[in-house]
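Lecture 7 notes: from sequence to structure.
We start with the chain below.
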Amino acid sequence: MTAPLHAPPRAGTHTQPAAGLASATAVAGGDLVCLDNDGRTLAARLSTGPLGSLFVSASWIEALTATYDFNVKASFLRPLEESTGAAILFSEIDDIRGRRVVSLPFSDYCDPFVENVTAWNRLIDPILALQTPVRFRLLRNSVPLSDSRFTHSANALWHMADLRRSEDELWSGLKDSAPQNVRRAQRSRVVIREGTSPEDLQTFYRMHCSVRRSKYRLFAQPFAFFENLYSSFADQLVVLLAEVDGTAIAGILFLIHGDTLYYKFNASIDLTLRPNDLLIWSGMRLGRERGLSALDFGLSDTAQPGLVRFKRKFATSERPIIELRWSPPDYSDPRGHQAGEVLHRMTEILTAPEVPEAVTRGAGDELYRFFC
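Predicted structure tokens for the same chain:
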């Protein structure tokens, strides 16, 4: 029997942030405002602009807050009603790893909505006044890079495939082994099916957990997060399953926002038949059929060259994702280092092959929130 897709939240969690913008805290140079149901209108509006993305959309924020109870906030200059209002979205977190500001948790990138250095300084100053470490990931906005208070590194890459081409042009644009792998999977009777049911989501999640554990020795995000994505995105969530004789051997979970198809999670338990190339090719065709303009492959850590090579076979664009970091002068919080060491060791122990799968999943459910 499968678990209900819309399971009730655990005790002590909140499915929605507290309502009411009247509780906003005024800060010199800007305001810090909780994004509740009204504030999500700001996120929805900003997410459709040139600096917007899936990761600042109202649906993504809703899934994050429903799963992890994060407090998503905004430092902003203009009234929320103005579509041109400048803003920085972020979460202020205080847990066993210490205090920190992240924009945004578990998001591939989240560009500040600023057009010049003056706006950036006015928006970032009240965040720095919190006197806690700050971390951003930038994809398109280079304005913050001129701020000498921040260190920056480029340890991740972003890839995109242009879907505004004919199917023949998409096919001819496949690189390296991709065309051969697609044909090999087809000859091996691999069939791609678009999953629509809660059971299909659970099938994908089981493979996802298996790969995270066996290949990477990492926890998977709790199934509650996938449930909340399913609820928030509805028909804008697409699960493609690669099957042989009705048995799933691989899958990709895509999310649709605006005119873009986002490759968010992938899982393969049989690589000999090359199902991943066929899955991506099917996703490109699906995106084009739905009138979408791009397939966003998201973040790839440069420490995973195999993943980078895989995405390059399909991508038409590549650029670095820049991570910005700032800490208060002489800042020290031993909780962060100590908890990080414990979490690393617990991950090694609880993802070992001899540990029962249910234990690994249960540990991930409890601990994953601390990895942001």
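Points to note: Residues 1-29 have pLDDT under 50 and may be disordered. The CA atoms of residues 4 and 129 lie 44 Å apart.
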